[in-house]
Amino acid sequence: RRDNSRGVCLKFISMKAALTLLLCLALSGCLVPWVRVSASLPDPNQRANELLELSFKQNLGDHPLAIKTAQAALELFQSVNNVDGIAKSYEHLGQYYLAQNKLAESERYYDLALKIRRQQPRLDLQADVLINLAMLAVRKGDWLNGVSYATQAHNLMNEQSDARIMGRIAGTMAYIFYNSGLPESALEQYQRAMEYYRQAGANRGAVR
Question: Would you say the pTM of this structure is higher than 0.85?
Answer without folding.
Answer: no
